[in-house]
Hints:
With 249 residues, this protein is mainly alpha-helical. The protein is built from 11 helices and 4 strands. It has helices at residues 7-10, 17-29, 51-67, 111-120, 127-137, 141-153, 159-164, 174-185, 188-199, 208-217, 233-248, and strands at residues 37-41, 77-81, 220-222, 228-230. Helix 3 (51-67) links the parallel strand 1 (37-41) and strand 2. It starts with 6 loop residues before the first helix and ends with a helix. The mean pLDDT is 90.
Amino acid sequence: MELESPLSNDWKDLYSSKTNCTTYFEKYVLSQLKNPLILCLDRLDRIFPYQEVAVGFLELLRVWYEKAQDSPIWQKLRLVLSYSSEVYIQLDNKSSPFNVGFLIKLPEFTQAQVQQLARLHKVNLTESEIQLLMELENGHPYLVEQALSHLKIEESSSLEEILQIAATEAGIYCDHLRYLLSLISERPKLLEAYRKIIAATNPIRLNSFQTYQLHSIGLVYIERDGCCRPFCNLYRQYFIEQINLLNSN
């Protein structure tokens, strides 16, 4: 934006960080704009585990949203929040930025879309290979992108090699899977509920709150009758082993 940054001179220790930040945006940033500013916050879920930081910051975003309802200067700021899991933070409905504005949920890729994405990555996959990828990941956008990016960068790798170790700590999905495990490993009832789902041959029904939590994390697919099944085979394979290890310890 090529604006001067007098932050060090104007950040007042007498006031809270939220007050200072709001004043700074209004006085030094938004006041100098002729056109709207779009502020995109990607992977906002990365701050969710840090309760002390997350609550204050998310409340700040809600304050800015409310200011835009009647303040022309704050109408210059447009917020786009991207997050990949539900918000497990105790926020009052009047303080949360997640129950205002417009919600856009990213759907799963179809097989045709995976084929198109593979072509865009210049990765050559047969129809049968794409079908195997769909069976493992169920069109999960992040997982599909991860597989195709890996195949593009590591030209010596094959889809067969990826699939063989996909649900292990040696696979390309290990960080993602480990993160999902961390979300439920400290919630015994939720962990037990998911154990029942991955052990069942047919979708099962949970109480509405557990269904909401697991679906929000992305671990289950909800059928039309309200019953749950694992979102994809990758999750089933990984969590069967990991939950058994947790129980054995």
